Amino acid sequence: MIEATALRALGILGGEPLVRLMGRIREGDPALEHDLREMERAASMLALTVPAVEPPVELKRRVLSRIASDGYYFLMERDSEWEPAGFSGAYVRRLYIDSRSGRDTRLVRLAPSTPPNALATLAGAGFYVISGDLNADGVHLESRDFFFAAGASPTGRTEQGCVLFTVLAGGAARGPAPTRVVVRALEGEWLDLSPGVQSKHLGADPERGIDMRLVRLEPGASWEAHHHEGAEELFLVRGDWRCLGTNLHPGDFHRAGPGTEHAATTSSAGCKLIVVSHLDR
Question: Is residue 62 assigned to a domain?
Fold first, then answer.
């Protein structure tokens, strides 16, 4: 019975042996119950004796993404890393990998030495310029500009370096004309969502189920509660934002899975968010 007690403490005893063991304890066997409690206590300490090992960044991101796929997920800038992306001067910071849909929400950092063909591979057909400059298919982009090319694989170069926000979602979209959308920082219409909260639409990619917009909150404003039919991803560009009791700062990322609810969120000093709505469930 001592072997069965040890296996039960480790959580790997099953079947008839487990039934017999628990039956003995229920019938009243103080010595056996004491042995089981002592073994459970020892088993709980085993994990503390194993040296800590940092998992590979890619593995860690995939595991955490899968765990949080149907709930709420936060990734703070301090907890993520830039990874070499296979092109000169290019790096990727993965924010969320959805293994079911094949979508990869990420930041992409390019340097002047990065070859033009890296843009389509690393950032896809649509992206928001977080910082720096980029010449994409002859269109000069600067910080806070948005670019989308339906049915195309854009090429691009940067003179000073740049950081892009994007969602990779399979091949290039085959959307109808116009094939190119550019929304400059000072262009586009801001629409009121609630007092002190405004939204500006950037672009939609129905073929790949993605819609991207900006949302800004004035100091002290509250973005009212809402339901998510599909997943919603948010990246904080500037300011401060409080969501689900968590304080986020520039560079932080949050994802709410399909079917979830967001209670009212707030900002003390004001903020701007990139918001990605996934159009399918």
Answer: no
Residue 203: C-alpha distances to residues 13, 212, 233, 276, 280 (Å): 55, 6, 15, 10, 16
The answer to whether 167 touches 276, Cβ cutoff 8 Å, is yes
pTM above 0.70, yes or no: yes
Domain coverage including residue 99? 81-183
Cβ proximity of 272 and 238 under 8 Å: yes
Residue range 252-266, pLDDT digits in tens: 999 998 888 888 999
CA dihedral sign of residues 83, 84, 86, 90: positive
**How many domains is the chain partitioned into structurally?**
3
Tokens describing residue 152: 């195309």
Read off the tokens for 124.
């896809």
Max Cα-Cα span within the chain: 81
Is residue 198 a part of any domain in this protein? yes
* 113 plus 198 within the same structural domain: no
Q: What is the pLDDT of residues 109-132, one digit of tens each?
A: 999 999 999 999 999 989 999 999
Joined together, the tokens standing for residue 139 give 């269109």
**40-to-12, 24, 28, 32, 44 alpha-carbon distances in Å:** 12, 17, 19, 12, 6
The answer to the question of residue 151 being in a domain is: yes
Q: Is residue 61 part of a domain?
A: no
Q: Where is pLDDT greater, at 1 or 152?
A: 152
